[in-house]
Amino acid sequence: MLITVIQKSVSNGIISDEEQIYVVWMFAWILLFLGVFGVITNAISISTFLTMGLTDGVTLSFFVLSVADLLYVVSSMSMGFFSIFWALEMGTGYRMWFVVDPFGGYTISANVSFMLYVMSMLTTLYLAIVRCLCVARPFHFKNIFTQPRSVFSLCALAVFSIGTYLPLLFQMGMDAQVDKRINSTRLLLWITSEREFIKVIIWATRDTAISIASQVIISICVVVMATILRRSSQFRKKHAAVISSIMITQRHSDNSQPIEITNKQRVKDKVLVKQIILICVVYIVCNFPKVVLNIAVALEPELTIGRRYQNIIQAEVNVMTSAQMLNSCFNVVVCYKFNAKFRRCCSFWTFT
């Protein structure tokens, strides 16, 4: 059975309909600003990684992360566009209205963005686990995560991210119907009666579980990498004199090149670890609103569209989306800061 869903008038004592208009306006411009910035930064990242060459698993993973972030930012920016039209309709008491119901367009865009962000989450998780294993057990895992294996892993993550959410997207859409608020026909949102049951299953087994698990696993990876990095730094400082004398001695021998190459590789690995740690920390902070939202939705069934707390869930979704868009815009800054090859290939940057 199909159910038509429109923006209902609700009064829950927390966010009134009048306050909802201002909330929608505020987040509409926030999403649009972050969207424009995110499209530019991720387009630069994608172009730069292609210039660098996707010859290793790490660069390939960062490239996929940039593509996932770009798609997510575009879908989230469409939420901002629909929010502007939505606020105009509510603010004018539907004296001004559009052929497509902005509430329905916003809701579908939000669900598409939910699907795409999981790919970004899983790619970040993959990067954290791979680098953590390579740092903790370099001799065991250094050559395991090759480019072909990374391609297979990332493709599997993409199929999982999209395939597990499509059943929910198939339970909603937009169709020409009579809207009693404007006494005219336009495209309105519809959902099936089974959508809520499917949503509970998907959110419980997919969004909630992955959000919390990724938060915990990435936090553990950050602690492990930071600990090993600190111990390595302390070891080098403690034995700096011995290492220096060995290198001076080796400069006068025929075997100096391997040691110099090894030292350069260690410095490069150290910088890469710092880069991934910073990306993971930003992810942990920006992903926290999503964890809170998933737990709240699981505990309170009225937190959904067309129910008592729809104004609250819409505000929470906007807060979550803003934080996630900020996370999606930040990766290019980290890459530019820590990756010398990225800086050389990034011909679009004008500052140093």
Question: What does this protein structure show overall?
Answer:
- Strands 1-3-2 form a three-stranded antiparallel sheet, with helices on one face.
- Helix content is 76%, strand content 6%.
- With 352 residues, it is mostly helical.
- The chain crosses the membrane at residues 26-50, 62-88, 108-130, 151-170, 209-229, 276-299.
Secondary-structure map with pairings?
Layout: E1 2-5, H1 17-52, H2 57-91, H3 102-136, H4 138-141, H5 147-163, H6 166-169, E2 172-179, E3 184-192, H7 195-238, H8 240-251, H9 256-299, H10 310-338, H11 340-345
Antiparallel strand pairs: 1-3, 2-3
Helix pairs in contact: 1-2, 1-10, 2-3, 2-5, 2-10, 3-5, 3-7, 3-9, 3-10, 7-9, 9-10
Task: Name its key features.
352 residues, mainly alpha, 3-stranded antiparallel sheet, 3 strands
